[in-house]
Specification:
mainly alpha; 11 helices
Length: 268
């Protein structure tokens, strides 16, 4: 890709960050939302879930909160572009002499990825103050960050594709609302896999959210973790971190290919 493409991407990315700067309430609420969610879950479920998880529930739920934040923010990544479409601003950008119109969606993806990782760092800082320590070391942090990035990229691809499939933002928000809660609650975000019925456990491990949560939880709570450590015992066999990362990569390839086809058609 040429230097002109990256210049276009940089300018449009800066535009999204200017939007965030001019709307500090949105940024602050986005940073506070995951902490509020996690606080409510811990307050409501701590006494009943500590025996089930076999440890402090805040320690258990922190990786789930990180993934919930990344998943939710990435799934909403296409909404600002849909607003641009509704107000006609996207048509103005498309009419500009751009080297490659892919810079329109790439800039949005970069912005949402940075803002989402910032939200995750806020959660890590807040839980560290409350006594939740990261045990996985430097390599564990790399593995955890990779899991977060794969979730962000995968669901951002889905969201950007959907932004060009719908004509009105409330249609997309309705779909997001329908998808979000089932994917979160049919995962291991707030309850351990081993406590689920066998048939449900096998289904849940195919959820991309679970695929990311389990490796992240492994490095968060274990100092002596290995990628071959068994993370789930299901009807299809014992699954380790390698299996989950392979599933996440496959999910990203499928989502990326679908989004590429949609964008190639809609941005032509």
């Amino acid at each position: 890709m040429s230097s002109h493409f990256w210049q276009e991407t940089r300018v449009q990315t800066w535009r999204w960050f200017l939007h965030s700067k001019r709307r500090p309430v949105v940024v602050i609420s986005g940073l506070m939302q995951p902490i509020i969610w996690m606080t409510l879950f811990v307050l409501v479920l701590q006494d009943s879930m500590e025996q089930a998880v076999g440890s402090n529930y805040l320690d258990f739920v922190t990786p789930g909160a990180l993934l919930f934040t990344a998943f939710n923010a990435a799934l909403n990544a296409g909404v600002p572009i849909l607003f641009d479409r509704e107000m006609g601003f996207l048509d103005r950008i498309r009419a500009a002499p751009l080297v490659d119109r892919f810079s329109i969606v790439l800039s949005s993806a970069i912005h949402i990825s940075v803002m989402t990782l910032l939200q995750c760092f806020v959660i890590v800082a807040a839980t560290s103050v409350l006594g939740v320590s990261f045990a996985g070391g430097f390599m564990g942090a790399i593995v955890g960050l990779l899991a977060l990035i794969l979730v962000i990229f995968g669901f951002t691809s889905v969201s950007l594709g959907l932004a060009f499939q719908f004509k009105k933002h409330f249609e997309m928000l309705a779909v997001i609302m329908i998808v979000t809660l089932p994917m979160i609650f049919l995962s291991s975000a707030f309850a351990p896999l081993e406590k689920l019925p066998d048939w449900l456990r096998t289904a849940v491990v195919f959820n991309p959210v679970t695929m990311a949560i389990e490796p992240l939880r492994m490095v968060y709570s274990n100092a002596d973790w290995t990628m071959s450590m068994t993370l789930a015992d299901t009807a299809i066999g014992e699954l380790n971190a390698w299996h989950f990362f392979a599933g996440l990569i496959a999910f990203n390839l499928l989502c990326g290919n679908w989004a590429r086809k949609v964008l190639a058609k809609k941005l032509a």
